[in-house]
Amino acid sequence: MKELPKTAKAVVIGGGIVGCSTAYHLAKLGLTETVLLERKKLTSGTTFHAAGLVGQLRTSANITQMLGYSVDLYKRLEAETGLATGWKMNGGLRLACNEERWTEVKRQATTAQSFGLQMHLLTPKEAFDLWPLMDTDDLVGAAYLPTDGQANPSDITQALAKGARMAGASIFEDTEVLDLEIDKGRIRAVVTNQGRIECERVVVCAGQWTRSFAARFGVNVPLVSVEHQYLITESFGVPSNLPTLRDPDRLTYYKEEVGGLVMGGYEPNPIPWAIDGIPKEFHYTLLDSNFNHFEQIMEQALMRVPALQTAGIKQLLNGPESFTPDGNFILGEAPELRNFFVGAGFNAFGIASAGGAGMALAEWVAKGEPPYDLWPVDIRRFGRPHFDTDWVRTRTLEAYGKHYTMAWPFEEHSSGRPCRKSPLYDRLKAQGACFGEKLGWERPNWFADLFAGEEPKDIYSYGRQNWFAAVDREHRAVREAAVIFDQTSFAKFVLKGRDAEAALSWIAANDVAKPVGALTYTQMLNDKGGIECDVTVARVAENEFYITTGTGFATHDFDWIARNIPAEMHAELVDITSAYSVLSLMGPNSRRVLESVTSDDVSNAVFPFLRVKTIGIAGCPVRALRVTYVGELGYELHVPVEYAATVYDALMAAGRHHGLVNAGYRAIESCRLEKGYRAWGSDIGPDHTPVEAGLAWAVKMKKNIAFRGREAIERQLASGVKKLFACFVPDDPGTVLLGRETIYRDGQRVGWLSSGGYGYTIGKPIGYGYVRNADGVTEDFVLGGRYELDVAQRRVPCQVSLTPLYDPQMARIKT
């Protein structure tokens, strides 16, 4: 047996397909001193019993691109290594059995088109011609992706392992990792049953073992094990070129295997596994077949594929796999521990993801950043609720059960709720709040009129949903009177210390070196100029800044700011999210309401836009921020949680004469769309710079102050950009925009919508997206084209704008 090396550049823990792909790509990047450690044998955890379907389309362009990379890799891997992979590009079919599903499929086809994939819509007869084993009596239509396929998971893993060795990596089986040596927050070595390896970077790709292993070192990886079954038939003449088939209305999937079929599915009542921990010697092990539980899937399959009634059954395979609370896998560097990377939780599509995930993870390890924005799978998308395994399991089982159900727009999870509640939760619920949830927080999305008999419950569809009229009421109150939004869930940080200003000046793209009382809207950039954070910064003392960011970005933004404080500077970042409630008082009457509950001067002359001031309301010291995300005069009132209910009651009582009402997040969204405010995670992110996003005005280029990303912005300002953010308004007011609709300029595909919704003031749908052109994009280029949007495979003419649709002079927010 080869001797374990004493040192390594990186150690990959786990010899499944993701670990082997990561080692392969690390070695290809030149980290030839990469070591992969597998406690038993390669593939012996989960990979060996994976079904092996390879689909590409996801709701994110970058994750779709990543899965497309997997396909490209699998196509060439056999020629590179000489080992068979079982890869077949036989295409993939997805069926629709009702009109709502057909609408979903048509929107998926538009998404595929937006992301550069060919997806063909088929009639039932055309689908039958491709898959003649199925009964098509209930089919409305189908979609076909010719570049999808299938593979043999174990063979691909062995080929990746050989490729990794050929590139210089070392792989050791039967080598169990016992511990990590960590000194002052830095990984120093990996300790195994075969010896010790000095290293500074560890990549944990240990599948369902990852959560418990990572937890030993303070790292949270939210995944749990769930039983997953599929059936393998005897050969009965199934053609080898049969496409893979997904039949979501019947919860089932199929692929050809040795003249027979593999058939599995996602039942609504999944069975969790290893609640008390994974047995120590569990490897190359399957669970007992559960025929009773599988019966519900089998019944659906028999109606679709009648030949299964007489086909011989070779095996009902039951293998546990790791699943996550949101159905997406987990990649990236752990925020809790430097140089501890994770690639796990692949939700039964690890084979499709592994090629691209290994590439992305390897680049993250080798270069310190991912190749592109990976927010949908970033480990930093999780937060406080995800530390509790019981909560993670509850939410994960719901996500598993929804794997093939309709992916409705605006759909909310129902499990594990309520978890985190604002002090106003009960008051708002009693007044008709319909709550959504983000990072465990209950947040009012909209308010039902209880006196009119409205029920605070979402009814999902692909058309205008049942809350459309309620949000119209709230939106008009924002524009015409005043509202209160409960935004307690905002993430809130304090940066303090003698070097706080210098540290924040380096991290923030805008100028934060302003007097106490100043409020600054700023991005925080990476070295490419991409937007990593989009925050509001209030200077509350000479050496103290109060930073506010979106609910879902709490872990991500805290991690980014903390990591970028220069080592030699004295500045400390503290998360104080739970200390403050936020009542956002917005609308043209908001100052009148505020004046009636405080003796402090809140006139425009004394308290202008982009200022922060402490005022008194009902015995409470309130940190008031003069800022808005809805395009109206307004104030964010940051209140110690113990005062929240008192301040809310005082505002509502005083505001009754000024038309003050409750409003929710859906009204915020419609207002921000009209005003052209960007949303991080959709409109802006690490792949978009302020110049491309139309936010260059918020970058301190006129000041001789160094900040991270400055050089990239200077280059773009000098040489131009290849994409530019723009607003699109369809001519047809009945169009429903949801995002990912394809943008056409003069008949050519130039991008897709990053956001979509409806503007109640202008009375039209609104979309935003980037106009792309490899030869460069200018404002004249954007405005000089004729535009259409593809909405569920229907071309809709639209108008383009580079200025806000509502109050472009910003007169309403500054008065």
Automatic annotation (TrEMBL):
MF (Gene Ontology): 4-methylaminobutyrate oxidase (demethylating) activity
UniProt domain GCVT N-terminal: residue ranges: 424-703
Domain Aminomethyltransferase C-terminal: 725-807
Gene3D superfamilies assigned to the protein according to its UniProt record, in alphabetical order: Aminomethyltransferase beta-barrel domains, D-Amino Acid Oxidase, subunit A, domain 2, FAD/NAD(P)-binding domain, Probable tRNA modification gtpase trme, domain 1
Pfam families xrefs: DAO, FAO_M, GCV_T, GCV_T_C
Domain FAD dependent oxidoreductase: 10-364
Keywords assigned by UniProt, alphabetized: Oxidoreductase
E.C. designation(s): 1.5.3.19
PROSITE patterns cross-referenced by the UniProt entry: PROKAR_LIPOPROTEIN
Domain FAD dependent oxidoreductase central: 367-422
UniProt record similarity statement: Belongs to the GcvT family.
PANTHER family, sorted: AMINOMETHYLTRANSFERASE, SARCOSINE DEHYDROGENASE
Protein name listed in UniProt: 4-methylaminobutanoate oxidase (Formaldehyde-forming)
